[in-house]
Fold each of these.
Amino acid sequence: MSPVDDSSNADIQVRVQHAATLSAAERAAVHRVFEASYKQPNHEYLDRSIDRIGMLAIAFEASGDAVGYAISRAHWMELPGFDAPQLVVLHGMRCVRPAFRHRGISGFVNRAVSDAMREEIAEIGRPARQLECGRYGHASRAGGRSDPSAVPQVGASPTAWQREVGLVVAEAYGSNLDPETFVCLGSGIPIGYPNAEFEATEFESAAFAPVDRARGDNLLVINWQPDAPPGWNDPD
């Protein structure tokens, strides 16, 4: 467990865990953070996300209870249109208990899980580019990217190549994707509603328009870093 390098958060320590080694007590602590952060929290969805993605960073206070977490892991995946496996970063849910917001906890857990991913990647060698992926459950977090490689784009339909890649990424998440809208179709049960709503921009609201939150939908957003492969945005 690593202490947070911040005197105002000296009581906070961060631990990176693989899903396979997560204890029942640690998993329960993560669920308590989720329950404190969301109305109608879907705990089965959280467990599936942890287990499919495979790694998370958890921030603990001195009492031993969790105050925040970030789920992410890099995976080498076979993607349509490529001769070799590509590095795909699957990002999951990030939560901080309301009483600990605005203290930088989200940044601490994000950096911890990112550092752990870099260490895993370094064992093989970092590629020239990677595909960053996330599923967004509410409008203020969705479609806000100005990166031209990001899919979906407001006002533009995904190309055939982008749809094919999106379907593979959605399968890795365990999601059922509508490749025309990049909506991951829900099970009929909401994922949850943040207990603090965030104001969405007009662009973000437009990107999120096809999502039915009550059904448990979310929006898959993918983008290449630092740049897209040749032909990524070419029309069909």
Amino acid sequence: MNESFDRRRFLFLAPALGLASFSRAARPSAIPLATDLRADGQVSKARKIPILVLFSLPGCPYCEIVRRSHLVPMLRDPQRAGLAVFRQIDIDGEHAVLDFTGRRTTHEAISRAHGMRSAPVVAFWDGEGKPVAENLAGMLLPDFYSAYLESALETARARLASPR
């Protein structure tokens, strides 16, 4: 059996566990899919802001909560949207993407390269794809998730703002 998240088993068990299923088509597109990390890295370097990446899976209800309840509102807020470059990577996705060196690859390969095996994970990268804050893995405590997200984002911004 594949060590990565078994999406088919999850989607089969989700209704039995009382979890809503979210199809690929129903997912809001407010967080752009990563297509050119090299260009995102250039923006990150020029503006000294992190790249905030949501690693997700279609059909993952926790990914949907993080996306809809936390990241999309942040992205839609004009005062907060400029705090980071927001991107989404589907862990098992075959979507084409240019990596930080300009090499063509896929979302799945980027996920593997960064050790992503479960979802949701919110990562904070510099303009070269190196971590600048601790990943937020899972849903953590729902009541405190916004505070964890804000703290990690501030840590990432502070690291990028200070001279290295």
Amino acid sequence: MTEKVFDSASNTYEVTFTLPAEAHAEIACLCGDFNTWDKTAHPMKKQKDGSFALKIKLDAGRHYHFRYFLDGERWENDWESDAYIPNEFGSEDSVLDLEVTPEK
């Protein structure tokens, strides 16, 4: 799940990515085209309830492909992403849509 907060001064969004505890992971990293799919660039913080969360800033006016990399071995999509798109590995990527900015 993602929560998006628009900052008109910088034309960016602060996006909170949340992976529910039902993913049953000990370690989670956020990977996507915003970090060249680096499996270590954005480690997520495990919450007391077993979920994971991470806030990052992303430029408005585009969409981003992303997935969660869990326990150093498996990929998981965001179960409530804006869309899904097939990837070159025979599965799908989650899509975060930041193309439309709120009216000022």
